[in-house]
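Incident review: delayed structure delivery

Summary: a single-chain prediction request sat in the queue longer than the usual turnaround. Root cause was a stuck worker, restarted by the on-call engineer. No data loss occurred. The affected request and its eventual output are reproduced below so the record is complete for anyone auditing the incident later.

Affected input:
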Amino acid sequence: MSKLVIVESPAKAKTIGKYLGKGYIVKATMGHVRDLPKSKMGVDIDNGYAMEYKPLEGKQETVRALEKDAKKADAVYLATDPDREGEAISWHLKEMLNLDDDKALRVVFNEITPKVVKASIDNPRAIDMDLVDAQQARRVLDRIVGYQLSPLLWKKIKSRLSAGRVQSVATRLVVDREEEIRAFNPEEYWEISVDLERINAQGAFKAKFYGNADGRVDLSDEASTQNIVNDVQNAPFSVHNCKNTEKKRNPAPPFITSTLQQDASRKFNMTAKRVMAIAQQLYEGIELTNGGLTGLITYMRTDSLRLSDDAVAEARDYIKQRFGDAYLPAAPRVFKSKKNAQDAHEAIRPSQADLSPDMIRDDLSADQYKVYKLIWARFMACQMSHAVYDTLTIDTISAGWIFRANHTQIKFAGFTAIYEESNDDDEKAESPLPNLTKGEPLSLQTIDPSQHFTQPPARYNEATLIRAMEERGIGRPSTYAPTISTIQDREYVLKEGKALRPTPLGEVVTGFMKDKFTDVIDVEFSARMESLLDEVESGKKPWKQLLDEFYATFSKSMAEGEASLAEGRLKIPDEESDIVCDLCQGPMVIKSGRFGRFLACKNYPECKNTKPLAVEAPGTCPTCGAKILKKKSKKGYAYYGCEKNPDCPFMSWDAPTSEICADCGKSLFKKSGKGNNKSFCINAECVSFLPEDQRGYYKKKAKTDDGEKDNEAPDGAPPEKKPAAKKKAPAKKKPAAKKPAAKEKA
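Output delivered after worker restart:
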């Protein structure tokens, strides 16, 4: 052996080892090999931010094996991930393995393909200490905030709380949005819709009140609305104007980390954490039937829209062959990254443009297929021709009032033949309009004035929160997913359906931070800090100078926070519920404990009743028609039961849906777990009833005495308890055999 390549994950090691062949040995670190200690801050602020790195528990054997291999090797290629974190891991490895500068060679793989892997190995570089310093500065900042501020929260509010430079700002966004919703004052407005029909030919359509010849008129009260209704009710309608326009729509740019997380959330309801885990698998390599172990996408943590010339050329060749010249623009599309983008890597794209998702579908899991198809389609679409739409606008007039109808239909599919971008707001499809002519008379069939009120801003969901963090410069691509997971794990924010709602705990902590730690929780300050870290990375700012500037302000805030302890602890208000205590008939409130949220009687300590917190599920109970509640068993498995339990015994591991069975009129259910599963009827008396063994669950198998296997509980459901084995009565001890008498000596 002469060359050692060190990567982070075993999957990547296997793929790269296959590409490099003989003469190379590829080993994986399984992530970091050393870090700051968990039991203390590990940063000596008074001694130039000296950091006390310790080998990670459980990595000793890995490090010893790497040391042994490194001593034998002529060169050690440090091929950890191509970002700040990966650069820091390479530096830690160099330090722990005692590698000389000329022996420690840094290589990065923006995609795991034979061409890129071999080219990177042929062009190594030294470790970029500016990148390492930027990562260390971020680490120290997070340690200072976390290890100095968190204990203050324990004393002031509640034990086991945490604060973070990014997580606290993300929580603030959710809290601020909730305050906007509470402070929102709805304003009244009215709409008038009319159903119109042609007189001289067939054709009907719906139009909405627009205004008059001078422009749009807003209806703010019932009186003005009724005046218009009275004007047109007995007046004739006719076509005032018909306008046909052609609109062009350009494709969206290729994915970056944030947009991939947003689109997967909208389309598949995937969490950001789940999306990144799947993308990591696709990047590191999948075993393909016809290609062996193959890295399918480029690196997934990026904020750059840059694409390589080779990748664009491959995409254009594929588009021309599959769709034809009409779908190929005259020149390749180029997308500009944002000003604050690091631009260290390309946008997220498939490693091989001609490797379509359907070609490898059988080699991918359901979620891997969804994410790969999303990335592949978005990349291909970004190099295709624009879509062309025909938009028809018809203005009808009656008594001087104009009612407008619109319809848009696609004229040329362009990039939409392969990918359609999703939006946060659902758009209703418009009905086609008849072929009308100007001046044509129309017949009024119905007129419907309706009162409405303006709606408050919607709560954030994961997709919109990631977009808000990106727009405001909070965090970086690698931090979006872990930040959103953290604020939910800490119970500062709850996920209800898709919406994120702050808990009373999150609001109290955020309020205290706003009062005493303005800079830490300030959105603009957080964005400015990210820009300063970028300056450290580019070598424009010394990392210790950045820390000095931050700590000068932070230490003053800490002094104010410590002084506030004399004012006493902050009380977390109970979260009200509409559930009545079974024992004393008092109201129950929602509390948080070591094992999560639960219901407790408000009359504590007089009444000490507690019960698990149940969440209302869609559908109705098939037994009695009451609400269905989602609950958790003692072992943490989700199940569904009737709200009238124990009077109603209904319980199911299958998840209820809002769909209704066409045959029996009762709620349909679907297989529990992830995936877009088909719904079915669980009513045994219905002709559409689907027996449990046909609902598509994976069945675990256990060996039996005759070598066959018995079916056990479906995946996602707790296994049934086996009856306790009967204890065998202890065997009676046999009397010890008497030793034969020794023969008498002669």
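Verification: The chain has six domains: 3-127, 137-184+458-567, 188-250+388-453, 257-381, 574-613, 620-702.
Action items: add queue-age alerting; document worker restart procedure.
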